[in-house]
Amino acid sequence: LTPERYPVQRLPFSIVSEEDLAAFESIIPGRVITDPEQLEACNVDWLRTVRGCSKVLLRPQTSEEVSQILRHCYKRNLAVNPQGGNTGMVGGSVPVFDEVILSTALMNQVISFHDISGILVCQAGCVLEELSHYVQERDFIMPLDLGAKGSCHIGGNVATNAGGLRFLRYGSLRGTVVGLEVVLADGTILDCLSSLRKDNTGYDLKQLFIGSEGTLGIITAVSILCPPRPKAVNVAFLGCPGFAEVLQTFSTCKRLLGEILSAFEFMDSECMQLVGQHLHLTNPVQESPFYVLVETSGSSAGHDAEKLTHVLEQVLNSGMVSDGTMATDQRKVQMLWALRERITEALSHDGYVFKYDLSLPVERLYDLVIDLRNRLGPSAKHVVGYGHLGDGNLHLNVTAEAFSQELLGALEPYVYAWTAEQRGSVSAEHGLGFKKKSVLSYSKPPEAVKLMQQFKAMLDPKGILNPYKTLPAQA
Ligand code: FAD
Ligand code: MLT
Ligand code: ZN
Q1: Residue 2 pLDDT > 70, yes or no?
Q2: Alpha-carbon span 102 to 331, nearest angstrom
Q3: Does residue 296 contact residue 320 with C-beta atoms inside 8 Å?
Q4: pLDDT score, position 3
């Protein structure tokens, strides 16, 4: 960590002693890692922008083990950093100093699957893609999908309330997660792992942990509602001459495709250039200022293809779209999705990435990208816009050869103030983690921040769970 980039001081937690290691070893024999080489990867985030210096990694297999570990840490005042797949975008998944890393990697068992309700119950460390395969074999799909599916854990997804590529159709995890098991800071196991669609008995406590980024408890198991696997999936990849046409195409798709529209993603020409340059992906359509990916998922292949073809005719004839291609076979569908899903990876090859994940009124969504290109001029390598247009979520990314304090100064607080002026959100789906915790107040009033701090103090009075993350330090 560069102190001038992130001014933060270690809080007075205890330091892991030989006795602590022995206690951990007795709880999870053979799964206490202290080898610096093995610790390297879990001390650095996916973007390689933040780095901690934890000396111990714990790999429990059961909720009971997590409970015993936390009971010990609570008693000893040891700080704990919960970690899933370590694919988070805001530096929440790695320690800031020497916090104990508690990984869910070995908590990867499916507990049950009900093939009438579609409710899957599993441990928190199951990898999203593996769950996807598991439910697909049973003719269901996971209600969420993201580019990090090969590494991220379902517990991490819930802890960040990840949005992703299926949000438009299946909604937020706040709706699809029907139950959670959570271990609290003092080691108490909170069993709210219900498999009920409807349950209005008291406050819905699980909601507090969804999106709490490891600061309120450790999610150990998840009960989640999986939709039936759609029989027909079609993808269209289209080039649009301007952002106004992207919006018109979106309205047309919503109106004419109705319930079968399952994704509407967009990217600008600079993104296309970057996936070409760094990942050698080929643009399947004529070069255009913008591209959109439209996906339909339904139960009748002929009916869906007919509907989508009709939409394509309309948007092409009216000039909203200048060129397009359609896919139904899995290989081409995946090829088209890769153009959008792998932008993050392409950006990481382009240099240091300044990442912003904003909710904005959809009609203003791209104005900020244009504005910033003018504002930053040649000091930025690329200023790109892409994201989940169907959800009003812009990913604004700026790359540079290396981190630059000057560039950061030109970006912040400008981007946050711009977003607040539109009553947008400064974190649509990635959370606040370590890197964005101080900008919470751009999207939430002081009363809300105070209440969040009170919840934190009540659930984790010693502040051992993921300290320095999500909430601004209390005055
Ligand atoms: P981690 O990165 O390990 O942890 C994230 C946070 O959750 C940390 O604060 C950590 O302490 C906490 N945490 C992890 N597990 C637990 C647990 N069991 N209990 C309590 N706290 C826990 N995000 C989106 O929202 N939408 C996207 O479309 C999307 N696409 C991505 C594409 C790529 C290529 C990459 C690299 C990332 C993407 N992300 C996206 C961000 C990231 O994948 C998600 O935030 C994901 O949900 C994190 O899961 P994880 O298991 O990797 O968690
Ligand atoms: C995405 O939608 O690709 C992810 O949220 C990751 C990113 O913002 O780059
Ligand atoms: Zn995203």
Answers
A1: no
A2: 38
A3: no
A4: 60
Upstream peptide bond of 284 is cis (omega within 30 degrees of 0): no
- From atom 8 of ligand 2, which residue's Cα is the shortest distance away? 395
Q: Which structural domain range is residue 322 located in?
A: 232-343
Residue 393 CA, closest ligand 2 atom number: 2
Alpha carbons 402 and 399: distance in angstroms, whole number: 8
Residue with tokens 């999207």: 443
Cβ contact 166:143 at 8 Å: yes
Q: Which phi and psi angles does 337 have, rounded to 5°?
A: -65, -35
- Whether 236 and 338 map to the same domain: the answer is yes
ipTM of the modeled complex: 0.99
- Among the listed residues 357, 414, 369, 367, the one whose alpha carbon sits nearest the alpha carbon of residue 270: 369
Q: Which of 61, 156, 147 is nearest to 343 (CA)?
A: 147
In this structure, is the dihedral angle defined by the CA atoms of residues 24, 30, 35 and 38, taken in order, positive or negative?
negative
Q: Are residues 337 and 378 in the same domain?
A: no
Q: Whose CA is nearest to atom 9 of ligand 2?
A: 344
Residues 208 and 286 placed together within one structural domain of the fold: no
Residue 67: helix, strand or coil by DSSP? helix
The token pair at 292 is 């959109």
Number of domains forming the structure of the chain? 4
Question: 188 and 67 in contact (C-beta within 8 Å)?
Answer: yes
Is residue 6 scored above 90 in pLDDT? no
pLDDT tens digits along 380-390: 999 999 999 99
Distance CA 311, CA 62 (A): 50
The C-alpha atoms of residue 360 and residue 362 are separated, in whole angstroms, by 6
Lookup: tokens for 224: 């989640």
Q: Which one of 93, 215, 436, 464 would you pick to mutate in the ligand 1 pocket, going by the greatest count of ligand atoms within 8 A of its CB?
A: 93
Identify the CATH number of the domain in which residue 66 sits. 3.30.43.10
Q: Count Cα atoms within 13 angstroms, Cβ side, for 40.
A: 3
Residue 166, ligand 2, Cβ within 6 A: no
For the Cβ of 357 lying below 6 angstroms from any atom of ligand 2, the answer is yes
